[in-house]
Amino acid sequence: EEEDEEEEEEEEEEEEEEEEEEEEEEEEDEEEEEEEEEEEEEEEEEEEEEEQQQQQQQQQQQQQQEKNKNKNKNKNKNKNKKRKKKKKKKKKKKYDPHT
């Protein structure tokens, strides 16, 4: 009878220990999973940030190119105007003997 009781107690203790171990393992697993999720989130955020920066850079480049293009266009326009003016002046001079 006493042996039986002792054996039963031992079994219960073993079961409790096993349960505790299982719980600890579960907790560790959960913590690990949480850490992994956090890392993934951080990586995603970094990637998004990088992407945004790249887009911004691209946009700035495009704007700069557009600006330069317009600048050149205006420069050429003004050059042509000057040239035409000069030509006109020359022509006028040619046909106007008083000058």
TrEMBL record:
Residue stretches of biased makeup (Low complexity): 53-65
Superkingdom field: Eukaryota
Region of interest: Disordered: 1-99
Composition bias type Basic residues, residue spans: 70-99
Compositional bias ranges of the Acidic residues kind: 1-52
Official protein name in the record: TFIIS central domain-containing protein
